[in-house]
Design goal:
The chain is α/β, with parallel strands linked by helices and about 230 residues long. Helices cover about 35% and strands about 15% of the residues. The strands form 3 sheets. It has a 6-stranded mixed β-sheet, with no helix packed on it.
Length: about 230
């Protein structure tokens, strides 16, 4: 089923997930009683296994750690994900560990040109196609296996509100140079956001979203190319 420009065409039923106060779905990840993602040691190891390691199944922690360190040394993206998840873990512990985590975040921003806030609630499975230009606010809740490409932004629209609810489901893919900007938004599971898209409203599960301007530009270029060949 083809997606309509500027809208999201569903391939299945509307997303029906349990709701957490504030609008976010909570079925996709383990949360604490206050609604925040539980960032404990098990969560950290699961993130490293899915995002940095090449191990398909959970195993001994020492084996996983050696595998993660070896792979992170060889790849910039994996090295960033290793350090980012560690910073999230330290931030959740509070106290002096949180201060160190905040300094780690600043160094990561400067070194990799990536500004993903360690306060963002991101479930295991985060993947980065390319590092530069990715910006993710701390007010977002993202499900498993989120795939984001270069120069993408997820941010709020209005500063100073008491509450934000930016919720992104599982298995969402975000095309290059795309933006999600809203104070409250719900993007369902298995959504594909096309390159150069601006998302400001909800997208149902199983949809493909793109902006109409992309189609107009593509059609114009194809028409010009055809005329030049004639």
């Amino acid at each position: 089923m083809r997606a309509r420009p500027g809208t999201a065409e569903q391939s299945g039923a509307l997303l029906q997930r349990p709701r957490w106060p504030g609008g976010c779905a909570f079925g996709m990840m383990k949360r604490q009683s206050n609604g925040k993602l539980s960032v404990n040691l098990d969560h950290l190891l699961e993130c490293w296994r899915l995002e940095v390691s090449n191990k398909k199944r959970p195993g001994r922690r020492t084996s996983l750690l050696f595998n993660v360190l070896r792979r992170a040394r060889k790849d910039n993206k994996l090295r960033f994900l290793f350090a980012f998840r560690l910073a999230q873990y330290l931030d959740a512990r509070g106290g002096l560990a949180r201060r160190h985590a905040q300094r780690m975040q600043q160094r990561l921003n400067l070194k990799y040109a990536v500004d993903i806030d360690i306060g963002a609630q991101i479930a295991p499975g985060l993947r980065l196609a390319h590092l530069p230009g990715v910006v993710i606010t701390r007010h977002v809740s993202i499900g498993r296996n989120f795939f984001v490409r270069q120069n993408c932004s997820i941010g709020i629209k209005t500063l100073g509100l008491a509450e934000y609810a930016l919720c992104i489901g599982d298995n969402v893919s975000m095309g290059a140079n795309s933006c999600i900007v809203a104070d409250r938004i719900d993007i369902g599971d298995d959504v594909v956001i096309g390159a150069m898209s601006l998302v400001t409203r909800d997208i149902p599960a199983g949809s493909t979203f793109y902006n109409p301007r992309q189609v107009e530009m593509r059609s114009g270029l194809e028409h010009r190319f055809t005329n030049s060949n004639d």
